[in-house]
Amino acid sequence: MFIRRFGAAAGLLLFASVSSGQTDRAAQAERQKTPDSPQQKDSPGRDNPGDTLAALRGRTPVDKEAAERGRKIFVPTCGFCHGNDAQGKSGPDLVRSPLVLHDNKGDVIGPVIREGRPDRGMPAFAAFTAEQIADISTFLHSRAADVSNRFAYKIGDVITGDAQKGASFFNGDGHCANCHSVTGDLAHVASKYEPVELQRRMLYPAPNLIDRLLGKAAAPTTRAKVTVKLASGEQISGTLDHLDEFTVSLHDASGWYRSFSRESASVEVQDPRADHEALLPMYTDENMHNLLAYLETLK
Amino acid sequence: MRTGALTLMLLLMPLRLFGQGLTPSVLEKPGADSWPTYNGDYSGRRHSPLKQINTSNVHSLSAIWVYRASNLGQASFGSVIKSTPLQVNGILYFTMPDNVWAVDARSGREIWHYKYQQNEGNHIGQRGVAMLGDWLYFETPDCNLISLSAKDGKERWRKQIADVKLEYFCTISPLVVGNHIVVGVGGDSLDNPGYLESRDPETGDVQWHWNTEPGPGEPGFDSWPDDDSRNHGGGMTWMTGTYDPELGLIYWGIGNPNPVHAGAGRKGDNLWTCSIVALHVDTGKMAWGYQVSPHDTHDWDATQTPVLFDGDFHGRQRKLIAQASRNGFFFVLDRRTGEHLLTTPFIKTNWTLGINAKGQPMPDPKKEPARDGTLVSPSSNGASNWFAPSFDPAAGLFYVVASQSYSVFYLTAEGKAEGFAGRDDFLNYPGAIKAIDYKTGALRWTHDVGGMGTGLLTTAGNLLFAGDHSGHVLAMDSITGKTLWHTTVGANQTNGAITFELDGKQYLVVGAGDSLYAFTLAASP
Fold first, then answer.
1. Which of A41, A139, A294, B453 could be disulfide-bonded to A10 (CB atoms 3.0-4.6 Å)?
2. Minimum distance, in Å, between the CA of residue A56 and any CA atom of chain B
3. CA B129: distance to chain centroid?
4. How many Å from the N-terminal Cα to the C-terminal Cα in chain A?
5. What CA–CA distance (Å, rounded) separates A173 from B127?
6. How do residues A195-240 score in pLDDT, each as one tens digit?
C-alpha cells in the first residue's frame, strides 16, 4: 500500500471526472483490493470491458449474437451506401445518427428501412421481417457502443522501432543495464507480456490501473524496500507497505507488519520505480520504440 | 382588544419568511454565514474571510458530526461525494448522481432526501445543486434540469437540457445569476457539439443558447475544416463558471474537441474548444474568447475554474482572470477584454513547440497520439482537472492540485475516426498542491499529497484545506505549505471543503467517499 497506490486509486477518481465514461464505483472497489489479488482474474469484465461499463451505467450489454445476425444483413444490403462499418459512405453515418440512437428494436428505423427515403435516394426494403430489422438495430447500437467505449478500443501494432538501436539505448543512455539483464530478470520477457503492456511496463513497471479496474489479470509490481532509522539509532528494514506524511509501515524480514510515526523516524526508500520515473522525461518517442523493439527480441 | 390590535399589527407587518433570503443581490455578496453557490461566491476563489480557525489554533480542530449517505439506488456506481454542498440558513444541500440531500449543518441530521428515477445516463459524478429563493436546481445523469423545493425536497418541474440517447450526460452545479439558471452539459464519447444554456428559474424554459462551435460569420467559424467536423466538434461545458457582476459577464471553461484523440479530420484550432469564454449573462452573446489549447488531441479540456480577482499586474491595477489548465500551463488574462497577460508551465510538459505571440502553447504535431504510441506529459487526466483551485487575494497566490503524470497516447481508430478514436495508457498518478504567484507564475511552494483528487479551500486564517491520498484531511499554512493539522476520515477526500460561520462558530465541512464530515475548534477561542 505504497503511497503511489493510493495515488493510483485516486487517479481513477479523477479520471472518473473527465467528461466521458468512467467509474467511481471502480475506484472504490480498487481501494478494497490488494494490488494484484488473484481473484481479479475471475472478474466478469476481464475479457470485455464494454460489458463491464455498460452494466455499471445501468445499460443492458449488447446481445452479440443479434448484433452479428444484424451485421450479416447490414453489410450486403446497406453497406454499399452506409459503409460496412455503418460510419457512412454516400449515405449517412449511422453510428452517431440521432435517429438510430433513438431506435428501440426497429421502432424508429423500421419504417425508414421498409419505406425508404425516395427523396434522398434510399430505396425501400419492404421484405425485411421485424426480427431482421431488430437485429439490424442491435448491430447499429453495437457499433455506437464500440465507438463510445474507448476502453474496448484495440491498440494496434506498436513494434515499429529498430531493435539494434534499442540495444544501444539499453546498454547506453537508458542505463537499463545498471539494474536489468537480458539473460537474467528480463529473459523471455517478451513472452510474458503483450507488446502494449510491455511498452508500458518498460516505461513504468506497474500494472495499468484501468485494466485492473476492469478486472484484467496483472503481474505483480516490484515492491519498494525501506529502511527506518529511529531516534534510538535502531534501524529496521523491510518491504514498504505504506508511506505518507505521517506514518511509514513495512513488513520486516520475519514477515511482521510494523509501523512508525514519521515524527520520530527517518525513512529511506529504495523504489525501482523511482529510476523509471526519472527516465520518463529523457525518452524520445524514437528511443521508446527502439527499446521496445529490442525487448521484443527477448522471446 | 389589545390582543386584536397586536394580531392586526402582526398581520400588517411585512413578513420575512424563513428561507426567502437567497435573492440575486445576496448571491452577489454572500455573507460568511453561508456558502450559497458552488464556489462559495461568484469569483471562483474558494477563499473565505473567516479566521476564527487560523494557523495558531487549527491544531484543535475536531470532528463534531458525520453524515453517511445511504439508500442511493442506482447511484452506487458514482457513490462518492464530488459535490460541493451549499449552506443556506443552517441547511446543507449536497448531491450524488440521482440524489439530493438536505442536512442540518449544526447536527448532521438528515432533513430530506430526494431520489431521482433509474436512468441510463452516465453516473460518473454530480457536483452539486444551485439555489435561488426557496428553490434548488439539479442536473441529472440523463440531463434533466430539476427544480426542487429547498423546504421539503419536492419536485416542482423538470426540463430536458440535453439528449441522453446521444451520450450527453449532466453533472454540474448550475450557475445562478439574476433570473438566469446557466446550465452546462457533458459527454464526449460520440462527437456531439457542446453548448451552454440559460434557463428561466420559474419555468425552466430556454432563455438563450450558446454553441461551442461558432456559426457562419462568427469568430472562429474558420477554425474548422468543414461542417461535418464543426457539427461533431465536442467542447462540453461540464464545470461551473464564474461571474463578474460589474461587467455582467460570465466566464466558462470549455471542453476538448472531438474526435478526442484524432486531429487529422479537424485541422485548425477548433474554436472554442479548450478555451475560456466570456459571455454576456443576459443574452448569451460572446464578449471574448481565449483558447488555451489550440487543436487539442490529448483530452485536455479547459474546464478548470476560471478564477476572478483584481490586482496589480506589472504596475497596473487590473480585473484579472486566471486558470491552471489541464494542459499544464497557468494563464492570466484581463477579464474585461480577454487580453493575454501571462503563460507559465506549472508542471514540466513535453508537448509544445513553444509559446506563440498570443501566449498560447503551440502543440508539437509529433506528440499527437500515434499508432505505436507517443510518450506525453501530462496524461489525459491532465496536469490539473476538475478539483477546485483556490486563490488567496492577500497572499496573491493561486493554488492548484497538480499532477506530473505521463501516458502513452495511442491512435486506435480504423477507418473513420469517431468518438475518442484513441486512448492513453496511464503510467503514473502523482499529485501535489502548488502555490503559484499570479504575477510571475513562479511556484512559491509544492506539497506532495500522493495523488490528485481533492478541491482546495483557503481562508483569511492563512490556512489551506485539502485532502491527501492516504485518507487524511490536511490544514496547511497557506503561505509556506507546511502541514499544521491532519485527521483521518473514512476515505480520501472527494470534494472541495467549504467553511461558514454559524452561532459564532466557524465550521469546516468536507466530503470523503459517501460521508460528510464537519469540524469546529474544540474549545471556544
1. B453
2. 6
3. 12
4. 32
5. 47
6. 999 999 999 988 777 766 666 666 666 789 999 999 999 999 999 9
